Amino acid sequence: MVALIFFHLFLFTMIFFIVVFLRNRNLVEMELDKIFRDFLIMEKTLSNFSQHFFQYLTGEVRLAFSSNGIIFFRIGRESIRLEAFSKKNHFRFPETFLPLKDETEISFSEVKWVPGGSELPEMLAKRLLGNHGYRVFYSVQLEGETFAVFVLYYGNFLTCLNGRFQLLANRRRLSEILRNIVAVLQEKQHNLSAITMENLRDYAVVTTDNWFNVASWNRGAEIMFGYSFKEVMYTNFRQFILTDEMDNFEKGVEISSRKEETIFKLEMKDYNQTPLMTEILLRKISIGGVTAGYYILIKNITKEEIWKNNIRNQSLINKSIVENTRDAILMLNEEDRIIFFNEKLRAVTDSSLNYLGVDVSRIFPIQYVRNIQEKIQELRSGQIEMVYLNLKMGELWYNIRFFPMRSPDGVYQGAILFLIDHTIIMETNDKLDRLSRNLLKNMEMAKILQMSLVPQLLPENENISFRSLFIPSFEIGGDFYYVDELQTEEGKQYLLLIADVSGHGIDAAMLTVLVKDTYNDFKILLETGRVFQVSQFLRMLNQKLINLNLEGNKFITSFVMQIDLRRMQIRYSSAGHPHAYIISGEGDISTFGIRNSPPVGMFEKMVYHDEHRTVAEGDRVCLYSDGVADLFEEQGLSFQDYLKQTVKRENYEVYSSIEEKLSELQSEKFFHTDDITLLIASVKAREKFHETRP
To answer: Would you say residue 433 lies in a domain?
Structure first.
């Protein structure tokens, strides 16, 4: 049973590899044919042909055989020449890879190289690449004792094995192509390049005498027209041209007599009299300045013309559907050229030009050209179904929506663009932006106002010191605090206030002004002896807030405290605010505050009460807003537990530690919606009696 399973598994693996191999073989054959087609184009267009083509050839062979890197040598009788090398983007040749500077650096007397063998290429590869990876060597005799040698580099054994199989399967075809290319290069010097086209299948290559009698006829011509060379030898080439196209052909002949070669379209016919739309390259063959005949390269573009006609027909259908739409519509081919547009585009561009065949970027203002190209590239390079761009043309704004056109197998074939009038929306957004900027400006002014109410300097002497931390929220909040040193009938006193207005925004910031005014009035009463209870401040603030009769539920939490260092006593009152902490000199932590005391502004004629407790030298009193506790809780921490970790530190170190931790938590949250306020009073010593006012 196990043996049967392994047999089926082996059989499935072999079938899979055979299928992959056959598929890859077809792809390799197509790539090799493409190499020769591109060779013909480059041979006609590039001045420094050899340098460009060998680099191109090396890159294409690497792609055809799925190699990570490849080196191409030409080995002559007495010299070695490194022609080109190519590699994948992510692939790096070893540091030992250096092009040969001296072609005679390797002595042939050291190695007896058999053509087709690998001993000499192995030496070259080892010198250039060291002992890295897996290699496949391929050589072919070009002419005489000159050989072309490819060294293909692979990163693993499986890809190397596949490359070796593909080389074996396509060795003959690659050899033919290389030999044909070399032959073309040789005959190019004698202007007889047409002879080397015999095995080219995708193009018909014909040579004629001065009267256009056929002198040569390659395999591609046999496939295209259905005649063998024996059937057409010495017959006139004009017999394959439709009668209506004869004048067009004669014009091409006349042009080639002046320019040596010309390219034009021509409608021809095959063995079955089937019309063929072709593209002709006609070149005059001259020997010693005398015309000896003509070289004719023919490409069958019938399918391309049918496709273009289908596009034109589709354009007519599209035009009947979209011509009356209020949006401008464009259709682009894969080269970003316009193949259809409706009349609305003329109104958008304020032009009567015919845009067919025009690059789409030319109809938009120059400052948007790069944006247009980037959006089209997004469609071309991925499976995105739509991208858009807002731009202004004249006085109007347009939202341009790009939709890709793809073949059934997902290949990009062009795009459709809709230009939708977006002016009203953009102008509305612009107005909203201006309003937002004004609002932000007003909010910034309100924040400045809020910050101006916070004291810049805190009292400090040999008996007591204060530290504060204030981190405003991204919105305008309502936290604030005050610390003052007062001279009262009972002597020097220290007054502390921390408060938090409900909500955020300008309303909350403006209420801080109300608190500031009330606080100033309360200080005067305290200094003149007309009030002795700190809870009186809460009653005064509560009444003022009730009298304003504000819309919504506006209230203020507050903790007010008076420190008397002569008696070493604090008096305090609170309204809905978090209780305060006191850290003793021995490190004990306790809380204090008024229980069941609602925020001010909620109940008219609310009576708030005082409480008091003693303090000792070394005690630290900590007041804070709920933003501090909330920030710790959101991180799964406790503010009180953190305080316990700091009790044994010096006063300033406690403050610095808390400040650092709060800043750390606030940065992790990134966006906080509540102010963070902390106030620490550190008692150093009892005040002497003579320091009080008589």
So the answer is: no
